[in-house]
Amino acid sequence: MSKGSELVITGISRSFGAVRALDQFSLTITPGELVCLLGPSGCGKTTALRIVAGLEKADSGSVFLDGEDLLAKDAAQRDIGMVFQSYSLFPNMTVAENISYGLKVRKHSKQKISQRVDEMLELVSLQSKINNFPHQLSGGQQQRVALARALAIEPRVLLLDEPLSALDAQVRTQIRDEIRRIQLESGTTTLFVTHDQEEAMAISDRVGVMQHGRLEQIDSPNTLYNKPATTFVAGFVGITNYIPSVVESKGEVQVLGQLLDISEHSQAVKKGEEVRAMVRPESIQIEKASHGPTVITKPFLGPMTRIGIDAGLKDLIYAELSSKDAKKFEMGDHVTVTIKTDSVMVSHA
Amino acid sequence: MKINLTKYSLVGIATLLALIIFVVPYSASIEYSLRGNFGKGHNLTNYYWFIHQDGFLSHLSLSLELGLLAGILNLLLMVPTATMLHLSLQRYKPIVDFICILPLMIPVVSLAVGAEYSMPSFIQNSQFELVFFFVILALPFTFRVLDSALSAVPLKTLVEASRSLGASWPSTIIRVVLPATRGGISSAFFLSFALGIGEYTMTSLLHWETFTTWTVVISQQNLLGSIALSTFSFLFAVALLVVIAIATSRRKIRKNSEIQLVEETV
Amino acid sequence: MNQRTVVPGSEKVRELGISGRKFSIPLPLLPFFIFVGYFLAWPITKVFIASLKSNDNKWTLSNYGPLLHGVYLHSFIVSIKIGLITALLGSIFGGLFAFVIDSYAGPRLTSVLDSISAVFANSGGVPLAFTFLASFGANAGLIKLLKRWGWDLYAEGFSIFSFTGICLVYIFFQAPLMVLVFKPALKGLRKEWREASTSLGGSNAMYLRKIAIPILFPSFVGSFLLLFAGGFSAFATASALTVGNVPLIPLVIGNLINGNVISNKTHLGASLAIGAIVIAFFAMSGYVWAQRKSTQWRK
Question: Which residues in chain C have their CB less than 8 angstroms from residue B111's CB?
Fold first, then answer.
């Protein structure tokens, strides 16, 4: 069922009045790849998705699917599958009728439709619900049916618009993994939009972080986390400590008594300027001491514990340790705080 | 481009129909009412005429009084009822819903006949019996409006918060519930008020003379004058409600833009 | 939505009140039920009883006899016709208006149009009749204009004081009433359904045929029935527009209880009133059915 198509988006811009929703947005998705657009509300990710779907118009730019000009086609002719955030199943139709909708449009034979519906229900593990109506299903089940409906037509591209946002936390994780499994099985090129960074990092081949209508960085989740290209990406992906620091000289910054290099993707700063150094919790090392910064919180997160330390700054500093290592620290203990990396990213205060 | 064609043709047809059904009669009656005597020219003589008729003020004030009382009684009856239904007695909502649809379905004439048969004489001898029936007639509209106003706010949460902070029931209602549903309450009031001053069927069948029945009598005498009267009451009602609508929507739009502002900074 | 959050003090409230064998009315709802019971249920009950009594106070069904033939049956039929025709025209025009407003009007314009609809929906009686007289009566500017252009409506037998005239006038409040009751149903059509249909390749026609119309149909029927009931029982406008030439049930009833006729016919007025209620009852059942159907697919 490998249906990989290549999606090439070039220079898409879109404004709504004075608001620039998308600014020269470009992205290439290789066949079979799952790319996630990640960003806060209003960053343009949904607009980009809807332009590919044909539900919005682009002011400029182009979208090519396997070499075909997509923007020249009506939304209904684009051979895409789309899953919406919620309420997109037709309420007056059963699960089977919903799934067969796209097939009926394409005038498949009754036999072929019935076969395909069964296939899709097996894919999403909902065979028993074949004759139920949407209002009889849970949120997670509804989204699985929506997925089945979108895939039934063997689309060349699958578009998902925050499909998990309306679901409960536990269901969200299950369905998210289901989506990834099904996507890999069918080999469909997929574009997924979300504001939840954990979701994006968990299932994507590549993640594109967006802000203010622009793509700030697009890389594998690993690269994004360890080598963020901008301070926004560094702050948006994963947890970060923002530690008030002072710029010592060109290229060096004084953080908590340590002199560290300023990493190359930091914002431009001047000597003597007060900045924020961005340090990941796993880069913070603590040792027991007789006086100094105090342990304030110690929430147990399963395999890891994130210890909150009061070092006399406005916010707590968070250090992430394995729970085994964290056992020796108690609330109220004094610790020394050391930063384990050589260079840090800095941003303006 | 295809979508635009559908949009323009639909809006065009709708506007054309609306013009024919509403604007033409309206403007024609305005023109008619401004006609001078013996068809000569246009002026406001007809308006002067009916204002100076004997009984204009007395009947108008009677209608206003009845309408006002109907509005107040309606609120007194329905606001607590609707509130309680929303808060803790939701099981009874379908029944109340059904009862409030009845006045739309039961022909007013039938109810008038019933009134004649059932009301004791002390009620039948007072024109204030109309107030009670106006309230009944307004039930469908006022209940619906109050119901949607109550649904628009997280009422249970607000009341529970107020009660848990130590406020008594009356205090909660006055300081929490009423302000939150202000829009619905004023709409409900104005709907019953409007119905009260414009009601004809009940009034005439129960042989009372309010502004509406008086105008029918007067109109026998002077056609142009009564047309001026009709046009006047129409324009007045529309103007009143449009003003209310703009005032309420301005508040809503301001509130919405405030919410948007907060969303953007978050 | 079925959470039973307990509001402090409500359990006590529930205990107080009137309890029968099968039902109980909690205290706070008592005023409502008493008011409605006395000013709505009681009058109707009295009429019903009166319709079953003859002049010498004996139980009888004879008052219902005249309803089944002759003048009174004819009046019922004419009233039903008016109800159906004006409901049909009103729901088609009103439905179109509701759709256009819902799809294309901005929030402020919608507010204004909603209020105007509310006023127009409640209009009637002499003001409405005279407004139409002014615009379509024999001396109206429009009619004179048409005459000058060669189309003499009145020569062809048109008159505002006729069956056709009444239908024309009734649209003035039927269409806005449709806007008021049907537009909320339109809002229930989620835009995701349209977009999903489009993304699956469905055309506008297919969306309408398979999704929009099936979902809207019950609400449309319910609204239509509401309009029918209103058109059937309208009194004020009818009395202003007819001079006895169009037999309508509300007018007939009105005449009978106005004492214009000999007193032994008052019981007939009661039976006619009940007959009218029966017709309205059918419309009402249909409406309740339609309401239930329209929300069957909602959780």
Answer: 40, 43-44
